[in-house]
Structures are given as C-alpha cells and as structure tokens.
Specification:
The protein has one domain (about 1-105, about 120-155). About 70% of the residues lie in helices and about 5% in strands. The protein has helices spanning about 1-55, 60-75, 85-100, 105-110, 140-155, and strands at about 125, 130-135.
Length: about 160
C-alpha cells in the first residue's frame, strides 16, 4: 500500500506543476514567435533598403535616384533601423551629395533627361551638414541634394 501512496503522491505533485510547465512552454513559444516576426520585418526592411540604395546610386536616372533617397529617408526613420544603418545611409548621402556637386551641367552630360527649366537656370540649396549654400544647374539636382541632406540629418535610432 505504501508503494501505491508514493506513486499517487508523485502524480499529484506532477499535476500541481503541470500548469506552471504549460505556462513556460507558452511563454517560450510566444517569445520565439515575436523574435521570428521581428526578423521577418527586418528582412523586408533590408530588401527595401537595398532597392533604395541601388536606386539612389543610379547615376543615369535622376528621378529614380531621387525616389531611392526618399525611400531611404523613410526607412531610416523606422524602428527597425539600427544606428549602424543610420551611419551607412548618412555616408551614402554624403557620397551622393559629392557626386551631385562634382558633376558637369546636365545638358552637357546627357540627352533625354527632362528639362528642369530654361537653359542657364540655377538653383540654390542650403546644405546644413556642410554649412554652406550651393548653386546647381537643375531642379533635379537640387531636389536630390535636399533629400540627401534630410538623410544626413535624420536622428540616429537608439541601439
């Protein structure tokens, strides 16, 4: 009889611990789900960032370049962005500004680019990151410089 009582006591003890064990399993499953959902969102964020980077570096199409920079400005404001991402985007924006400031006038460079106004039209752009105002030859270049400036000025996400 003593043996049966020992088994019965063990069964009752296991039954008392079962809800706690169930809670532990549910908690682990929930945390795993949240981590996977975050990783999936981050993966989609990075795919959009890659498209934005590729587009922002497209030298042949100023409209696509502008769209790419605008996408990057939006993405870097996301809670999925890391401080390292912000540093990367900022460095990219500085490089884009350097390219835009160093290029010859658009009309001398390509044909087929949408006209940005009458020949000789100049556009002033304030670049706070460089503490200077620059003059460029096209509205597209001015818009690209302004958006790149926004990308540089975006507050860094918290780690």
């Amino acid at each position: 009889m003593e043996f049966a009582e020992g088994i019965w006591t063990g069964v009752l003890a296991a039954a008392a611990v079962a809800p706690l064990a169930t809670f532990g399993v549910v908690l682990v499953a929930y945390l795993t789900y949240r981590q996977k959902a975050h990783a999936d969102k981050r993966d989609q964020w990075w795919k959009r960032a890659q498209w934005g980077i590729d587009s922002a570096l497209n030298d042949a199409d100023p409209q696509r370049r502008l769209a790419g920079i605008k996408v990057l400005v939006q993405l870097i404001g996301s809670d999925l962005a890391t401080p390292e991402d912000a540093d990367l985007m900022s460095a990219l924006a500085v490089g884009i500004q350097d390219q835009e400031l160093g290029r010859p006038p658009r009309e001398a460079r390509t044909t087929g680019v949408r006209a940005d106004g009458p020949p000789g039209t100049r556009h002033e752009v304030r670049l706070d990151s460089r503490d200077q105002t620059v003059v460029v030859d096209s509205a597209a270049a001015a818009r690209i410089l302004r958006e790149a400036e926004k990308l540089i000025a975006v507050p860094r996400p918290m780690a």
